[in-house]
Amino acid sequence: MRSRIALAFLMLFATGALEAQQSSAGQRQLRGNWRLVSFENFDEKGAARPAAFTSGRIMYDAAGQMAAQLMQPGRKPLTSPPVEAERAAAYSGYLSYFGRYTVDPSNSTVTHHVEGSSNPNWVSTPTQLVRWYAFSKDGKRLMLSVKNAAGRVTGTLTWERIR
Questions:
Q1: 123-125-128-129 Cα dihedral, nearest 10 degrees
Q2: Which of 1, 10, 78, 138 has a CA that sits 20 to 30 A from residue 148's CA?
Q3: Contact at 8 Å (CB) between 46 and 155?
Q4: Half-sphere exposure of 121 (CA within 13 A, CB side)
Q5: Pairwise CA distance, residues 42 & 152, whole Å
Q6: How far is CA 68 from CA 97, 107, 155, in A?
Q7: Where are the alpha helices (DSSP H) in 31-154?
Q8: What is the CATH number of the domain that holds 138?
Q9: Average of per-residue pLDDT across 19-40
Q10: CB of 118 within 8 A of CB of 91?
């Protein structure tokens, strides 16, 4: 009986260690700072069109924390003091968020667990942003894809490693 319990414990420990190792491998690939190269949205027929955000950064660290910022081109400077319409335009042209991230290498997904965001809805209702990831062969490019409920890719962000 004791040997069965010991064996069960050993198997549980080994499974947990393997999952931690796989997660660490996925995290190691993501770790670093990335610059947005392109962001494309795809319609129902798969036709690509550029998204409104043309520049950005995303960062993943070894402690499981991430941050992302996306910006639209041509944002106008604010007057002093800014009027409400200017603030609304500035807000709509910039998106940022941060939080923990978890990696599921078996499904090639990274989940961003939003803790803070320029979009207050993502904070008031805890938001989990699931992204399907792939790397270029040389590891210098990261592709993060967004899928709808049916599993169709609706957008892909391509990032280039900064460091």
A1: -70
A2: 138
A3: no
A4: 2
A5: 9
A6: 6, 22, 16
A7: 84-92, 120-124
A8: 2.40.128
A9: 80
A10: yes
Looking at per-residue pLDDT, the higher value among 22 and 24 belongs to: 24
Query: How sure is the predictor about 134, in pLDDT bands with cuts at 50, 70 and 90?
Result: very high
Residue that has been written with the tokens 């190792």 in this structure: 21
Contact 102, 113 (CB under 8 A): yes
Q: What is the dihedral of CA 98, 104, 108, 109, to 10 degrees?
A: -30
CA distance 58 to 99: 12
Bridge partners of 100?
A: 65, 113
- β-bridge partners, 128: 113
3-state helix, strand, coil in the chain (%, to 5): 25, 45, 30
159 close to 39: Cβ distance less than 8 angstroms: no
- Full domain range(s) for residue 125: 2-161
Eight-state DSSP code of residue 45: T
**20: amino acid identity, one letter:** A
Reference 58, options 131, 2, 119; nearest CA is 131
The count of structural domains within the chain is 1
pTM value surpassing 0.85: no
